[in-house]
Amino acid sequence: MNRSNKYLKTFAITYLIFLYAPALLLPIFSFNSSQIIAFPLSGFTTGWFKALLYQETLHEALRNSLIVAASSSIFATILGILASRAASRYYFPGKQFSLTFILAPLVLPEIIVGVSLLIVLIQLGLPLNLWSVVLGHTLLIMPFSILIMNSAFNNLDISLEEASLDLGETPIGTFRRIILPLVYPGIMASLLLGFTLSLDEFIIAFFLTGTETTLPVYIWSLFRFPKQLPATMALGTILIFVSLILLSLGEYFRRRAAKTQTSVM
Amino acid sequence: MSKLVQVKNVFKSFGDIHAVNGVSLDIQEGQFYSLLGPSGCGKTTLLRLIAGFEKPTSGQVFIDNTSMDNIEPNLRPTNMVFQNYAIFPHLNVEENVAYGLRNKSEKKSDQNKLVDEALELVGLSGLNKRSANALSGGQKQRVALARALILKPKVLLLDEPLSALDKKLREQMQSELRHLQRAVGITFILVTHDQYEALTMSDRVAVMFDGKVAQEASPRDLYELPNSQKVASFIGEMTFIKGEIVGENKNLQVQSEIFGKITIDKSRVFGQSSKKMVLGIRPEKIAIVPKTSRSKDLISGKIIDVSYFGETTNYKVSCGTIETLTISSQNSVGQLSYSVGEEIQLKADMNNIIAFSV
Description:
The structure holds 2 protein chains of 2 kinds. By secondary structure, chain A is mainly alpha-helical. Chain A has helices at 3-30, 47-52, 56-89, 95-102, 110-123, 130-154, 158-166, 171-199, 203-208, 215-222, 229-262.
């Protein structure tokens, strides 16, 4: 092994430690019996997790977050399917421009998106509630959905659709029997990624949520009460694992999408 | 026999590109018909116009005396075998073959029987449950055929179906396709750029260049009586010699350096007859004869190049003029072989010479 390789390895390991060590503190302190978040650890407890069971506001926030995450990932995925389908099959003036533009939320600071959406909603006189958060999150997730669905649709051989039509199937039947099954892994990947993104999104939710808070906004509000901190850690631990599972599932479907597509020919 | 597919003065443009530029064709029921031409000549576009994947810019396609103007591909009595086969990757062999039966009213048990029959027809019996991704190129080809034929179309369209196969398998599939077509009696329209494929398989061939049909004829006529130098050199090889008309009555008398003064039947003259003509002769219509032969129409020459092809040998022969003759000689029993620099005597079959206008 040469020298530069060794440095790279050290760098990679250091990088991973800095990336994940803080996150590892969450599960450690969530099982610590002391209320103070500091070493040395005082003892093992699952009490903080039990405490979560009795916090009604938490349950409400969780319910709100699930509604928002499910709705916005579904909306974003539907829009992503439509946009990618249009981009991969049809030619229209300004196609490249609109595709680039549609991906803009990827690079726009969330705070800008949050503030501008807030202004627009207030100007329109619309109430701030869960649906305004869904709107904001759909906007945020859509670029990801489009990117995932684009690769699924671009790999879809057009002659498969033509063959289906040629064999007497209607355009709608072709969509159902050929296109959907072949882009289905992409759809799953988009839904799961969108769900995860929405579930832990804070800034837009913070601006657009009315009285019904989402989970991240609720967690943030907890920081005002030091007594609640270990329970928050416990909640954070659960969220990390749920996110990890969702992301792994999403990645599994994304890879499966890539695999079925490449083996078409 | 009746006209099953009629293409009437069809044009198709993609922007500035005129892919099909005024084509009219009549295809008889039960024929094996080929559209032959170099890539980019519009043959695939024409096939897709018949299938309905493209709409003509102008002109009409009729199938069975019905205008296809407003008929979508899924409602046309045509089925297609795609160049890349387009086998549905998420379905197995059986599901692929039965795909089009879904919209027909047959019972499930009847459908299974039809699938088995179709697989037997293409020689894939027993592979019902095989996954599409586990098929070889030749097998995919057969599944694509079975999937189309099971629907008993009036016309089967084949878009360069053999181009992805290796030579041996391609030749085998050529003869299988021919037998299959005779067995099922369905009209086949084949798109190909391979002239030998078109000649060996078809009842009729349309040669296309630049979006137009250059000649439409039986394989034999196409080879023996090509109507232009372009068609002649696309279908096999032909030697062209400059000539000049020296007399014209029922036939044409043409003077040329190599052949001398010869008489050409009017049926073998193509294009406007002007003073200058080009004479064409296929390499195998010239024979090498023993030096001892004596006859007034023998041509003497000297071999300047030899190409050995196994079953035949091609010789380039200089006859004392700037033009050279190409001769193809079968390497059959008793046939002598010659080498570069040898003096030989040739006998051309003057009845096989064709005259083209310049």
